[in-house]
User: Which sequence fits this backbone?
């Protein structure tokens, strides 16, 4: 479906103008507390919706999400190593929405009309809002990966960077891989979703191979000059747990993919893989661009961190991986925290209170290096004086001293608790 | 068909879900804003779904003392020393007061997650 923006908007307004709304049993009315539409029920959007209902129960909250169930990206690398099932990462939305008085519309959003404050759905219907929260996550920039521009080629090379069928597809390819085969993965230049995620993946693929295909190898082609996150901990784990199994090649950006031959070309080499995993370069989910929230030529949305409103479009707030939130990482935990700040800011707005000047975000991010051992990075972030940036709170940032089984148990407990906090 | 779907949707949207007496609502205070950050690991309102300590209903002084000793480094931790240092003493106090005031222990709805 490749509709032009004006056609979509025309379809929506024609419907409204034809007087059909009067056919509804209940007349359209504005709720006293305001109408909020949340686009995307991932880590940011689901948290924002739930906490907005908690802190401003008089506000009408509608969530638009195409999926029937949430599937967690965090800990989905454990599906590759057999340390988790995909089912354990999956949580249906229906009961959650009913329980919190959230209206859930299982559809895709096609467009946003900021002037009339409307969201246009794939069905052609539209939703009016007073405030819009976009939590669109990332989209993949396949145009920047020569050889993977079209969908047929993409289907041959799973990214597994959004959890679900892609995760299962990559696991299935690992299972079919011959012993003595080569797993090749490519990492795009930072920033991307989940900075330590690619290195966790390399570790957990190695864990699977060490157990099931001991003669196989992992080759990691990283566009970055070094491991982006938790470098020392990953290096030690690779040396001690998987000696000679993981071949890490930094500053080795992907130039071309032959999806049929499963071969890749970089500046330095041509490689053929038995299983190829390309983590594509990323940018804000496309609805952010359609809504006009992106600056020309920039991949991520700039916001005011006091209330996450877009610097460019009125009445639109953007949270999660789609935002330019450096030094905070694009993590599920940070999106959860941003969801709470935007919920509080909207509750303040509709209640006529002043903007709250001191929101605080924390991040706790665990990485597994085997099914039984993990480590963390933790930090607290505060808003800069201008409101347009984040900064590390003094002395608040650091990583684990060592990997441990204790932290693997804590990582699993973290997942249980944060999923419950979003979707319970 | 598309037309009927659209009409049904708009009708569905006409009724409001807003209600001021919603169960699970709470006042927005400096304490509830800050403590919501902690809820990611310790559970909503400090009621853990397992594996990480619940904070709801603990004594104010006990929570505050724990946060102060994490921040000073006298109490060993895997993540809490980093978190505790990110907040001011006034903020740590507001967090302790919030959790101490959560007297009702409820079973979390997603406890069967794992």
Assistant:
């Amino acid at each position: 479906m490749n509709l032009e923006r004006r056609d979509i908007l025309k379809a929506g307004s024609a419907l409204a103008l034809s007087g059909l709304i009067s056919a509804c049993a209940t007349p359209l009315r504005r709720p006293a507390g305001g109408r909020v539409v949340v686009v995307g029920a991932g880590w940011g959007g689901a948290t924002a919706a739930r906490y907005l209902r908690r802190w401003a129960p008089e506000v009408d909250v509608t969530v638009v999400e195409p999926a029937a169930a949430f599937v967690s990206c965090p800990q989905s690398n454990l599906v590759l190593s057999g340390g988790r099932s995909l089912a354990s990462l999956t949580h249906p939305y229906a009961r959650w929405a009913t329980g919190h008085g959230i209206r859930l519309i299982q559809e895709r959003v096609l467009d946003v009309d900021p002037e009339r404050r409307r969201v246009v759905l794939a069905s052609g219907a539209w939703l009016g809002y007073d405030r819009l929260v976009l939590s669109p996550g990332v989209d993949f920039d396949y145009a920047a990966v020569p050889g993977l521009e079209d969908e047929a080629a993409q289907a041959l090379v799973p990214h597994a960077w959004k959890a679900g069928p892609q995760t299962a597809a990559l696991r299935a390819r690992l299972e079919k891989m011959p012993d003595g085969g080569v797993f090749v993965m490519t990492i795009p230049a930072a920033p991307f979703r989940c900075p330590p995620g690619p290195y966790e993946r390399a570790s957990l693929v190695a864990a699977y191979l060490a157990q099931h295909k001991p003669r196989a190898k992992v080759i990691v082609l990283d566009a970055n000059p070094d491991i982006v996150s938790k470098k020392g901990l990953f290096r030690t784990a690779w040396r001690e747990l998987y000696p000679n199994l993981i071949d890490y090649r930094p500053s080795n950006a992907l130039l071309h993919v032959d999806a049929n031959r499963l071969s890749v070309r970089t500046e330095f080499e041509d490689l053929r893989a038995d299983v190829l995993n390309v983590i594509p370069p990323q940018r804000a989910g496309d609805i952010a661009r359609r809504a006009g929230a992106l600056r020309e030529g920039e991949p991520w949305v700039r916001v005011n961190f006091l209330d996450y409103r877009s610097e460019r479009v009125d009445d639109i707030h953007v949270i999660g991986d789609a935002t330019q939130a450096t030094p905070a990482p694009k993590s599920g935990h940070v999106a959860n925290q941003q969801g709470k700040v935007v919920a509080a800011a909207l509750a303040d707005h509709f209640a006529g209170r002043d903007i709250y000047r001191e929101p605080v975000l924390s991040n706790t991010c665990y990485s597994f290096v085997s099914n039984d051992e993990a480590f963390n990075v933790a930090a607290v972030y505060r808003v800069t004086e201008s409101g347009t940036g984040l900064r590390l709170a003094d002395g608040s940032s650091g990583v684990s001293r060592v990997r441990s089984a204790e932290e693997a148990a804590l990582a699993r407990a973290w997942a249980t608790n944060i999923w419950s906090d979003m979707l319970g | 068909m598309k037309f009927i779907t659209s009409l049904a949707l708009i009708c569905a949207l006409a009724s409001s879900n807003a209600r001021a007496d919603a169960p699970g609502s709470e006042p927005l205070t400096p304490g509830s804003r800050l403590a919501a950050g902690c809820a990611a690991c310790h559970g909503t309102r400090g009621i853990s779904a397992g594996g990480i300590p619940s904070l709801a209903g603990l004594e104010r002084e006990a929570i505050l003392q724990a946060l102060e000793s994490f921040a000073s480094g006298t109490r060993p931790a895997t993540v809490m020393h980093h978190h505790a240092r990110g907040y001011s003493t006034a903020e740590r106090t507001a967090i302790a007061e919030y959790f101490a005031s959560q007297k009702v222990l409820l079973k979390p709805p997603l406890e069967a997650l794992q």
